[in-house]
């Protein structure tokens, strides 16, 4: 019995050294009047508006960075030089010489464009 009382006294002296935390109520809990739900319409509206603004900004930014010529008149005005002829985009011109491409398709529109350029070049000073 003495041992039990002695162990109890030791436990009490150990717990006395521990700091006690006082808890107090700052604000009482209040039950809401209605349940809170995700505001789907508001979230979708904000997303749509921000997406639209970002898309328009991206399109205007890409357009501002494009510095290629769109028309013949724009090229003449920018460079200050007359245009002698116009050549279409030929897909396999990078891999094959021009003579081979024109010889294979002698009736194609790009062959006619090269012939027209050659004729204009011969007569260019007489303009």
Structural features, described:
Among the domains are: 42-83, no CATH class; 84-127, no CATH class. It is built from 5 helices and no strands. It has helices at 2-17, 40-65, 72-79, 98-104, 109-122. The model has no long low-confidence stretch (mean pLDDT 79).
Write the layout of secondary structure elements.
Elements: H1 2-17, H2 40-65, H3 72-79, H4 98-104, H5 109-122
**N-to-C terminal Cα separation, in Å?**
128 Å
- The class by helix and strand makeup works out as mainly alpha
Helix run count: 5
Mean pLDDT across residues: 79
Structure characteristics:
single chain; 127 residues; mainly alpha; 5 helices; elongated
Give a brief rundown of this model.
The chain has 127 residues and is mainly α. It has helices at residues 2-17, 40-65, 72-79, 98-104, 109-122.
């Amino acid at each position: 019995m003495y041992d039990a009382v002695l162990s109890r006294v030791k436990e009490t002296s150990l717990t006395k050294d521990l700091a006690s935390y006082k808890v107090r109520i700052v604000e009482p809990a209040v039950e809401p009047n209605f349940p809170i739900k995700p505001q789907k319409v508001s979230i979708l509206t904000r997303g749509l508006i921000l997406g639209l603004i970002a898309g328009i900004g991206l399109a205007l930014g890409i357009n501002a960075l494009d510095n290629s010529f769109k028309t013949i008149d724009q090229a003449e005005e920018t460079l200050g030089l007359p245009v002698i002829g116009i050549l279409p985009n030929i897909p396999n011109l990078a891999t094959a010489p021009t003579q081979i491409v024109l010889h294979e398709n002698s009736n194609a529109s790009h062959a006619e464009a090269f012939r027209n350029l050659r004729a204009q070049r011969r007569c260019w000073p007489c303009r």
